[in-house]
């Protein structure tokens, strides 16, 4: 009976917020903030959710362009913008004068951005299904030519004489993962070059994290570019720098930089020497409500592996979020969570639950909002969180697509 009531109320909440699942799996949720105690987020919501700050994203875009001495930013929103919502983040950054466009690796996600009304250029840095080809061309998605096979596929998309097919050449300068190896003969470009309906709009590659090798990669890139230009192709856009290279190697900025993680307010390394010079803003809050408060007795344990032993009779809170939602399981090594402006230590992370020690006082109530990551204290920023658990920034923002997103103009 109780479950049924819960189900009904959640369903009506989803209706109210116009949460729609399209064929592409897009779940756009846009809730304007208001001044209630928990602006924008329905009281019914128990399970974890993500709040995004448009202001923080726009601030970071501007700052990243400053890091690149004014060069525009091609924002990498792959992997659902590292779990934070590719459509939601693209809609925010579409308004930034510092953002050139967006780069993704999945065909259907490029289309999802267009379907959501995103106007700036979108580059698909991956392959595409033949069945989606015409939609990609109609949506003016720039395709990547990264192999002879991909060039053939691209040429086969030329049907409408009124519509150009936009292509960028994807070069492998040493990452060895994608792109045409730099030392191959140039004949792979010929079918693109000779087709007047195909517009080659750029050339790109990706640097490795090894600084010395990155310099060699830059040389390989420049030599390749010269070879292409010598055949009469003009190259307008060039880009090669993910976040780390952008910070480490000014020569890598080319005509635009191509960061992912910096956009969300995290630096790529555990050592972030430039974080003081460039104060990126945390762009998101990861939140959930407390669903259980119990006083456990000294000597009791928490978790399957009995990971935490209760030191003295103390209050333990349970949150309905775990590693299956994308919350890093290393959080149990000392991460903090904020409830009512106070920080509590995480002592257990399972697949769908985690536990916090509240202490001697019953100062947290079932239904209170817990902030697991957010801008509200240094310990819970993405950066602070990673420092506490000695972790990898990339793995920490990897949230499940199913987490609802709420977009605010700015964080309160
Ligand atoms: C992921 C990725 C990026 C962005 O990497 P960050 O380290 O998040 O800045 C850039 N280019 C390519 C090809 C990528 O796959």
Report on this structure.
By secondary structure, the protein is of the alpha/beta class. The chain has three domains: 2-46, no CATH class; 54-266, Alanine racemase (TIM Barrel), CATH 3.20.20; 284-393, Lyase, Ornithine Decarboxylase, Chain A, domain 1, CATH 2.40.37.10. 26% of the residues lie in helices and 22% in strands. The strands form three sheets. It has a nine-stranded mixed β-sheet. Strands 2, 3, 4, 5, 6, 7, 8 and 9 form an eight-stranded parallel β-sheet that branches. It has a two-stranded antiparallel ribbon with strand order 12-13. Strand 16 (342-349) and strand 17 form a beta hairpin. The longest helix has 20 residues, at 211-230. Residues 1-38 have low confidence and may be disordered. Pyridoxal-5'-phosphate (PLP) binds at residues 76, 78, 125, 206, 242-244, 258-261, 268.
Structural features:
alpha/beta, TIM Barrel, Lyase, Ornithine Decarboxylase, Chain A, domain 1, nine-stranded mixed beta sheet, 19 strands, elongated
């Amino acid at each position: 009976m109780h479950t049924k009531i819960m189900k009904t109320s959640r369903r009506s909440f989803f209706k109210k917020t116009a949460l729609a699942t399209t064929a592409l799996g897009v779940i756009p949720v846009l809730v304007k903030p208001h001044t209630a105690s928990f602006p924008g987020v329905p009281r019914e919501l128990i399970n974890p959710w993500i709040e995004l700050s448009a202001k923080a994203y726009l601030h970071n875009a501007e700052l990243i362009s400053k890091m690149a001495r004014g060069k525009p930013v091609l924002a990498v929103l792959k992997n659902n913008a590292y779990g934070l919502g590719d459509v939601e983040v693209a809609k925010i950054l579409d308004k930034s004068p510092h953002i050139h466009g967006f780069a993704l690796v999945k065909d259907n996600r490029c289309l999802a951005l267009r379907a959501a009304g995103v106007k700036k250029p979108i580059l698909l840095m991956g392959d595409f299904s033949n069945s989606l080809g015409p939609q990609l061309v109609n949506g003016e998605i720039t395709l990547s030519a990264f192999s002879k096979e991909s060039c053939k596929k691209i040429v086969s998309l030329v049907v409408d004489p009124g519509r150009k097919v936009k292509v960028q050449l994807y070069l492998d300068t040493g990452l060895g993962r994608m792109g045409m190896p730099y030392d191959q003969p140039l004949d792979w470009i010929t079918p693109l070059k000779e087709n007047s309906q195909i517009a080659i709009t750029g050339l790109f590659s990706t640097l490795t994290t090894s600084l010395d090798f990155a310099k060699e990669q830059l040389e390989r890139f420049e030599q390749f570019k010269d070879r292409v230009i010598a055949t009469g192709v003009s190259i307008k856009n060039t880009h090669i720098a993910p976040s780390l290279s952008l910070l480490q190697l000014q020569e890598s900025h080319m005509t635009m930089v191509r960061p992912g993680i910096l956009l969300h307010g995290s630096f790529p390394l555990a050592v972030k020497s430039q974080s003081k010079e460039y104060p990126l803003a945390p762009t998101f809050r990861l939140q959930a409500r407390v669903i259980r408060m119990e006083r456990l007795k000294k000597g009791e344990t928490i978790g399957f592996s009995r990971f935490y032993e209760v030191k003295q009779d103390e209050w333990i809170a349970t949150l309905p979020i775990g590693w299956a939602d994308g919350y890093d399981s290393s959080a149990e090594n000392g991460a903090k969570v904020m409830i009512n402006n106070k920080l509590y230590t995480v002592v257990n992370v399972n697949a769908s639950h985690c536990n916090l020690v509240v202490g001697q006082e019953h100062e947290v109530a079932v239904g209170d909002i817990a902030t697991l990551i957010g801008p509200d204290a240094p310990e819970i920023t993405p950066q602070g969180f990673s420092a506490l658990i000695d972790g990898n920034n990339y793995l920490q923002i990897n949230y499940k697509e199913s987490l609802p997103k709420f977009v605010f103009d700015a964080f309160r």
